Every structure is written in C-alpha cells, then in structure tokens.
Amino acid sequence: MTERLSTSSPAGITGAATGDRLPPARLAYDRHTWKEVAHLLANFPASLIGFTYVVTMLAVGVGLTVTVIGLPLLAAGLLGARQLGKLERARARALLGVRVDEPSRLPWRSGDGFFAQLWMSLKDPVGWRTVLYDFIRLPWGILTFVITLTSLFVLWPVLPFIARGLANADRAMVRGLLSPSDELERRIAELESDRGVVVDTAAADLRRIERDLHDGAQARLVNLAMGLGLAKEKLLEDPDAAAAMVDEAHGEVKLALQELRDLARGIHPAVLTDRGLDAALSSVASRCTVPVKVTVDLAERPAAAIEGIAYFTVSELLQNISKHSGAKSASVEVWRSSDRLLIQVGDDGRGGARLDGGTGMKGLADRLTAVDGLFVVDSPEGGPTAVTAELPWRDRENAEKASRASATR
Fold first, then answer.
1. How far apart are the first and last CA of the chain?
2. 121, 123, 206, 214: most buried by Cβ count inside 10 Å?
3. CA separation for the pair 317, 363 (Å, rounded)
C-alpha cells in the first residue's frame, strides 16, 4: 500500500510573491542598482504620461456623462487604463524584478448586450485601481527623479541605498495597486483558461459516443434488420435456411446488446449511480489485469459530478496499469480530507509515467484542473508509481437541490 501524500497546494500564493528576492543593498554598483536607478529616472516621464491620460479621461468621460457618449468614453478610458497598468507591470518586471500576475480579462460573453458590457467595464476594479495608481504617481515620479538625479552627482557613495529604498516603495505600489484584486480573481482567470479544455473534452466525448454508435451497435442492427428481412423471404420456400438466419440474427442481437451495455457503462455506469464509488471502483478493479486492492473511506457520497470524475479518473489509471506498468499489484485509495476528495492510485511496476508520456495523463490532469482539482504523478524510473488526484468536495444533497431548483426555473 502506498503512503498517502499531502498534495494541497498553497492557494494563497500568487506570482507577486515569487522572483522578487534581491541581494541586500551595499556600497557597490551592480546590475540591480543600475536597473533601479533606470526605473527611478524613468518614473517622471512614465508618471507624467499616466497622470495626463487619467485626468483627461476623467474630465472628458465624467463631464460628458449627461450625454449618450459620456459613459462609453469613460468605459473605453478604463480599458485604456488597463493597458497602462500592463505596461507598468512590464517595466517593474524588467527593472525591479517584481513578478505580478496579470489580472483576468473582463468576463464578457458573446450573448452579453451593449449595456451589460458597458456596465461591466464601468465597474472594473482593475481599471479603477490603475487610474488611482497613475493619479498619485506624478508627485512621486517627480520626487524620485529629482532625488535619484541629485544622488548621481552629489550623494554618489550612498546611491545604492537610496535607490534600493525608493525602488522598494515602487515595488509596494505595484504590488498593492497593479496586482490582481485577490485570490478569487486569480482563480477566475485560471478557470476561464480551463473552460476551453472542458468544452474540447466534452466535444471529443460526444464524437467518441457517436463513432461507437455508428460503427458498432448501429451497424450491427442494420445487418440484423437485413438478415431478418432475408429470413422472412425464405420462411416459406426454405424453412431450414430461414431458421439458420434467425439463429444468426439472435446472436447479432446479443452482441448489439453487449455493445450498448459497454457504451452505457462508458457514459455512466449503473453501479456508480446505485451503489456509489466503493462498489463502482471494486467493479472496475476486477477487470484490471493486475490484482488491485481498493479502499474507499467515505462517510457520505459526494456530488454526482465529482463522483463521476473520480470514477473515470481511477478507471483510466487502472487501464494504464494494465497496459503499460508491468506491475504485479496495484492499489486504489479514496478518502475525504476537509473539503477535498483525494484519490491515490499506486502500482509496483516499472515506473517512468509522465504527464507528457502519451498515456492520457495530460488529459486527466487537464480535466481535473478544469474543475479546480489537482493531479500529481510520482513515478521514478524503476517504480513504484503513485498518482494522486484531488477534487473539490461537494455535498450530494446540496448539489441535487441546486439541480432541481435550476430545472424549475
């Protein structure tokens, strides 16, 4: 049995907290010092451009709000302010080493009307915080420009300390006003990018089901109908031949039913709906070519959607073990930790499994990431392999209530 791993990610950490460590300031003129000096000298022209833009934007936009073009102009100005913020983040990244995540885009949808998009732009917190940043930067830009320029000629020996102190204040402003609003906004950006993965996966699954129906059960039923038609024609003139044809058709019916059962199991197995993960995973483990020990430690069942994702994740991992691992034994563990459902599938095979190894691991990782999950592969060459999946826990009862409420709207 593999040891359970702790895979909880530090959700509160963003890009703003990485890549900012600098050597301590000292009486030396290294590349960090010169980058900080360049940033401080560029503060004046950059802040002058930003201040001029936001003052003009506010004066024109607010002044014309009594007309039909005022609010659209203000909204366009806020979109422009977003671009100024992007340039400032790039300047801070290049010269100050500040790594700040880009804020998420405005969540416009194709079906949104003009006024919905207008209102969304007007209440954009990223745009307004960039306006505030550019508005208060002019006096600071003038001050840092004058102090840095003076220090270059008058206070040369202590310039590194002065540059570091002023640059640290700039770093604080960038992180405080130009970073994403909060962890929620960062997660929204990630989930928006993952939405395409969900759509593509669903489309691929529909194409697979259509192909299986067309090439499998549908083709078999067409042949069955043709065979029965021929048997009907021969029923009077050659009863023996007709009986043989009916027997053959009977066999085709059995095969068609089996294919439909297999297809239905691939969509959503009945045992999962009726009896939950423990029984469903035991069933899929019994079909694995490697002996599998299944341990499910759940006091209650999660939401049906989460349960289905967990089932198909384990099912695909066990298929990989059967085909690629060369293992003699495997294990499946499922348990709940706080508000997360954790799954660990391990084997004692040859190892070497990777997300880019062509065994479907990347697709599994994308699917779990798209629902705010986590997928970790630990598979050194020579084994053993431990794959840990983590899904958000959603109560089954609450999910069913929400589904019924949505259906009645």
1. 48
2. 121
3. 11
Residue 294 β-bridge partners: 332
Q: In what order do the strands lie in the sheet with 385-392?
A: 292-297, 330-337, 340-347, 385-392, 374-378
Whole-angstrom distance, CA of residue 221 vs CA of residue 223: 5
Q: Is the dihedral of CA 17, 19, 23, 27 positive or negative?
A: negative
d(CA 324, CA 316): 12
Segment 150-208, tens digit of pLDDT: 988 888 888 888 999 999 999 999 998 888 765 555 555 555 555 555 555 555 556 66
Q: Please report the DSSP string for 323-368 in residue order.
A: III--S-EEEEEEEETTEEEEEEEE-S-----TTSSSSHHHHHHHH
What is the dihedral sign for C-alpha 13, 15, 20, 21?
positive
Q: How many CB atoms lie under 10 A from the CB of residue 155? A: 13
What's the Cα-to-Cα distance from 378 to each of 196, 295, 310, rounded to whole Å? Answer: 27, 20, 19
